[in-house]
């Protein structure tokens, strides 16, 4: 993922984002920017000979994010705020690598907070992260299924 991030940055363009399609999750405002299609397109450009590179990277992100979110929940329940923040840092990095903008922002917010602040707002931020991941997963899946992702438009 570090190599992907480095390569994507060298090919970066102005961000183009997709809004969630009528999500019923109140934790994510309707106009929240879920994904950065330009980042996904840059990953697609890295496909080269491997036609399923983007899909492989995304499936890896989905699996990793689910595992990190489970670990974040466990850390939060145990009031292990340092661990919670370390996991948020890992999730922030992988979210940024695949253009999961909303999840990236939530993780950034978690990282800015002190442990005392996490005692009062950690639960809400975790729920926001879970909701954002669910909506992001839908948005990325739609992006991958759309014929337009082959051209980046």
DSSP helix fraction: 55-70%
Give start-end ranges of low-pLDDT stretches: 8-26, 28-32
The CA-CA distance between the termini, in Å, is 24 Å
Percent of residues in beta strands: under 5%
The coarse overall form would be elongated
Mean of all residue-level pLDDT scores: 81
In DSSP terms (H or I, runs of 4 or more residues), the helix count works out at 6
Largest sheet report: 2 strands, antiparallel
Secondary-structure element order, N to C: HEEHHHHH
Kindly state the number of beta strands.
Answer: 2
The gyration radius over C-alpha positions equals 16 Å
The structure class reads mainly alpha
- Spatial sequence of strands, sheet with the most strands: 1-2
Keywords:
153 residues; mainly alpha; two-stranded antiparallel ribbon; 6 helices; 68% helix; 3% strand
